[in-house]
Task: inverse folding
């Protein structure tokens, strides 16, 4: 990153950075994305990649299509350094801006702190690939969207994959799986579901905590060595991931039997581990690389015009950058879908929420968006805010990630009762009456038919 | 050797070697505290800055030796800068003021590190193979052995420096009684400058070894959290204490995590060392080897 750019980023840390290009003549309406980004501090590497990809896609839509049906996409950034109190402060500072489409903090802590606020303010909160598992239940969490993958689906996807490695899910019986998790609410969230899946498939699970930040794991890996597990699942974050891979090597555990979760799957997790990471496998919802038409367009139309957000172009196509682009696709398509119902104008947060609840991108639509192979599909409904995203697995060869599995569907059917039990308890605790999604969808359908009839 | 005994030996050896890594960071604290009575909270940030500077220079094509020399020069400038611009103007201020100043310096150095070299994480390969060696059924990390040797060498050099060189003797004189040292004509500012430079060099060594272990990234500055219980246990002004306490803390952490963790819940090694240090503090406030302060009232 040029020194000047970094200087600006540092000077503006903690302040709001206005972006989204200067207003252009002819823009009638604007849809605004407030970004609680983190470009400095311990997690800046992930933050710059994700928010860079998100902004690159918004830029692409403005440059290529003139916005979404003529509605310009705008955004501004508030630096959080991944700290919850700063994230909430940015929320309070930006929430009164007009035309907010959705919040996308990419932080479990900040997202948790915002749930009550966004519910009161009626604006969607997008927690792509993370967040509360039970927020999948849109009947209880109408404004929260853990798009593509919640922690339980991730767990199920990983077990499905281990099943394929073992020669079938039934072959997991008698095997031992060690789960090495980050000592935080995020890390602990999947403890019950791993225990349940172990009972369901007959394998033994040993769940081992690594205290934050995870820069020392000798004792955990010695314990693992004594257990002699068939696989180790790495549910890490930040420095914990490369240290896990290095310590595994140090204690003689092969990297190709370690499977990382969705926050242990980036270049930042493997590069510091050097050769110890070769062969390591991790789950992902989006492939990395630049081979996809949408990424090529970002390169040509955004970076070609000198408007790219990443200072280092070599990071285009990295895991976090592609996740940011994918997040951009999902946000933009939700706005587009909502415009189809409410009109091609600046929408309210509640109207964009409706768009997210009808975000249905099948493989054909994904291909039309230039994202075939980048991700599979998504089908969000009133009751299912995750949207049944598929997962795939990638293996690090020392220089890049290579996809090594098909798109895998987690076992949503068996997860749903657990999710509903948790969301029902939450609703009871908070005095929430769950929505009647069937009635809402029927009303939507009726409204659609009337609109179609009026149009004829 | 029975498998259980071999496992116990592995846990102990692994803990001792980890403890040496903690001691490496603690020594930087001790150097400053010993001569100026300041607990330098910026030591972790200096470790980060040194490692980030070194790895960024090598990634820009500088050979290993040239990058090392350049980083050494940078750390000398950082050490001198902190002493001249922050500590010297605050001389004679209460210890808490000086401590808060180093806290501020820590944030400035962390910010400057990201400003100068960016926010990306980097791998650092020192050319030491990190595959384990089998010693009679006990696996020992080659890298950790190398790190222990480096730490041992550094302690030997520092001990020789303090014992046999004029500047080293001046350090000790200042540590024993600053006013008496001043009376004999020793130039305190010069000695403080020298000790901050030494702390910068220790930070470079610790940064390279910890950077090779963790990767060079922002969390390197958090290694100070591992050094604090070592300091409490060993005494803030004893290099030998830092080494011995590092070994104790490392072994206690690993033994507790492996054998006590499953009983009382895992993930205890993050705080168990502090429990040990606090317990020790109650019995011996100056630590194992720290000088007991006696003030005439």
Result:
């Amino acid at each position: 990153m040029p020194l000047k750019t970094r200087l600006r980023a540092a000077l503006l840390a903690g302040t709001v950075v206005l972006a989204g290009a200067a207003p252009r003549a002819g823009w009638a309406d604007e849809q605004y994305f407030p970004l609680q980004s983190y470009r400095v501090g311990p997690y800046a590497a992930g933050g710059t990649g994700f928010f860079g990809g998100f902004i690159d896609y918004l830029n692409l839509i403005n440059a290529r299509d003139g916005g979404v049906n003529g509605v310009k996409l705008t955004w501004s950034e508030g630096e959080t350094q991944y700290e919850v109190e700063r994230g909430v402060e940015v929320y309070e500072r930006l929430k009164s801006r007009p035309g907010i489409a959705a919040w996308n903090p990419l932080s479990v802590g900040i997202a948790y702190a915002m749930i009550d606020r966004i519910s009161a303010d009626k604006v969607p909160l997008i927690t792509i690939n993370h967040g509360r598992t039970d927020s999948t239940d849109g009947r209880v969490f109408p404004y929260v969207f853990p798009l593509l993958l919640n922690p339980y689906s991730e767990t199920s996807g990983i077990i499905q994959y281990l099943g394929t490695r073992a020669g079938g899910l039934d072959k997991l019986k008698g095997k031992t799986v060690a789960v090495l998790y980050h000592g935080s609410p995020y890390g602990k969230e999947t403890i019950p579901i791993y225990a349940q899946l172990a009972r369901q498939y007959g394998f033994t699970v040993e769940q081992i905590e690594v205290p934050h930040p995870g820069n020392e794991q000798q004792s955990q890996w010695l314990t693992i060595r004594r257990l002699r597990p068939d696989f180790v699942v790495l549910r890490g974050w930040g420095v914990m991931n490369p240290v896990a891979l290095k310590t595994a090597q140090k204690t003689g555990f092969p990297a190709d039997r370690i499977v990382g979760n969705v926050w242990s799957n980036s270049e930042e997790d493997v590069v510091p581990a050097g050769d110890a990471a070769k062969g390591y496998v991790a789950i992902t919802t989006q492939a990395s690389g630049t081979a996809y038409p949408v990424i090529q367009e970002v390169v040509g139309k955004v970076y070609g015009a000198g408007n790219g957000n990443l200072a280092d172009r070599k990071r285009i196509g990295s895991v976090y950058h592609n996740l940011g682009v994918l997040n951009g696709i999902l946000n933009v398509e939700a706005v587009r879908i909502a415009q189809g119902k409410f009109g091609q104008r600046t929408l309210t947060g509640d109207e964009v929420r409706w768009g997210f609840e009808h975000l249905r991108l099948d493989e054909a639509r994904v291909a039309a968006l230039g994202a075939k192979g980048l991700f599979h599909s998504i089908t969000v409904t009133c009751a299912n805010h995750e949207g049944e995203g598929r997962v795939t697995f990638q293996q690090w060869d020392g220089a890049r990630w290579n996809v090594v599995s098909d798109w895998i569907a987690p076992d949503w059917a068996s997860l749903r009762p657990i999710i509903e039990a948790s969301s029902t308890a939450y609703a009871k605790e908070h005095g929430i009456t769950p929505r009647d999604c069937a009635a809402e969808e029927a009303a939507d359908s009726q409204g659609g038919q009337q609109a179609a009839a009026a149009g004829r | 050797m029975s498998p259980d005994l071999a496992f116990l030996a592995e846990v102990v050896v692994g803990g001792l070697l980890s403890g040496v890594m903690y001691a490496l960071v603690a020594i930087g604290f001790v150097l400053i505290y010993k001569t100026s009575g300041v607990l330098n909270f910026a030591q972790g940030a200096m470790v980060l800055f040194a490692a980030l500077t070194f790895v960024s220079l090598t990634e820009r094509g500088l050979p290993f030796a040239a990058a090392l020399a350049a980083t050494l020069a940078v750390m000398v400038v950082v050490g001198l800068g902190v002493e001249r611009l922050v500590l010297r103007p605050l001389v004679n201020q209460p210890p808490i003021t000086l401590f808060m100043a180093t806290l501020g310096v820590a944030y400035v150095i962390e910010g400057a590190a990201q400003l100068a070299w960016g926010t990306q994480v980097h791998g650092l390969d020192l050319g030491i193979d990190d595959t384990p060696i089998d010693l009679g059924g006990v696996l020992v990390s080659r890298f950790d052995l190398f790190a222990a040797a480096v730490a041992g060498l550094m302690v030997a050099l520092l001990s020789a420096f303090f014992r046999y060189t004029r500047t080293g003797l001046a350090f000790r004189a200042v540590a024993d009684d600053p006013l008496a040292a001043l009376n004999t004509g020793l130039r305190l500012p010069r000695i403080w400058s020298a000790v901050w430079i030494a702390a910068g060099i220790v930070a470079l060594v610790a940064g390279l070894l910890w950077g090779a272990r963790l990767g060079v990234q922002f969390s390197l500055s958090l290694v100070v959290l591992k050094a604090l219980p070592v300091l409490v246990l060993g005494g803030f002004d004893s290099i030998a204490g830092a080494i011995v306490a590092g070994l104790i803390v490392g072994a206690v952490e690993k033994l507790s995590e492996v054998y006590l963790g499953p009983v009382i819940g895992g993930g205890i090694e993050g705080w168990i060392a502090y429990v040990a240090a606090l317990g020790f503090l109650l019995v011996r406030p100056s630590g194992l080897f720290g000088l007991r302060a006696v003030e005439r009232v």
